[in-house]
Amino acid sequence: MNISSVLESLLFVSGDGVTISQLAEILELSADDVLGQIAELKTFYETNRRGITVVQYDEYVQLKTVEENFGYVNRLAESKKKLPLSPAALEVLSIVAYHQPVTRSSIEFIRGVNSDGPMGKLLERGLIEENGRLDAPGRPILYVTTKEFLRSFGIRSLADLPDTETLEEAVSQPQQEDLEETAQ
């Protein structure tokens, strides 16, 4: 086993970081050995002028972009915000808009599939936000739309949203036209 390679993979997938003790347990090493491996990895990145580095915050360790690349990373993040929303994200957004405040499990029940990805994108873009917790077992997080949602869709308030009957008619209209064209 190449410990340096495994350590790098663990840090990469951990996102916000992982504790030294977690790494020690997973790698079956002592905390001191893990710290030594982290120091070697950091030296490798610095010596080879890589675009990432290893940083430690108390007990947590994570990969981080080197400072001189922040501007480029920010440009990428901003350009991703301009991409259109996926159909799944639009579906989740409409569920939140019409059922808010709503829990993730309610959204997933309505959709019938896991909604982690679309919800993450909507949170990242600031179109939905956490708004307290439901007073129920597990105290699930409640989600609502934001002012950014209103601004992005050009509406002043949630009262400006079309009612669900109007939406159902709009959705069924093209289907009816398709059926009529097929019959001709």
TrEMBL record:
HAMAP family: ScpB. One of its GO terms (cellular component) is cytoplasm. Belongs to the ScpB family. This is Segregation and condensation protein B. Signal peptide: none annotated. Participates in chromosomal partition during cell division. May act via the formation of a condensin-like complex containing Smc and ScpA that pull DNA away from mid-cell into both cell halves. It comes from the Bacteria. The keyword Metal-binding does not apply. It is found in: Cytoplasm. Keywords: Cell cycle, Cell division, Chromosome partition, Cytoplasm. Homodimer. Homodimerization may be required to stabilize the binding of ScpA to the Smc head domains. Component of a cohesin-like complex composed of ScpA, ScpB and the Smc homodimer, in which ScpA and ScpB bind to the head domain of Smc. The presence of the three proteins is required for the association of the complex with DNA. Pfam families: SMC_ScpB. GO terms for biological process: cell division; chromosome separation; DNA replication.
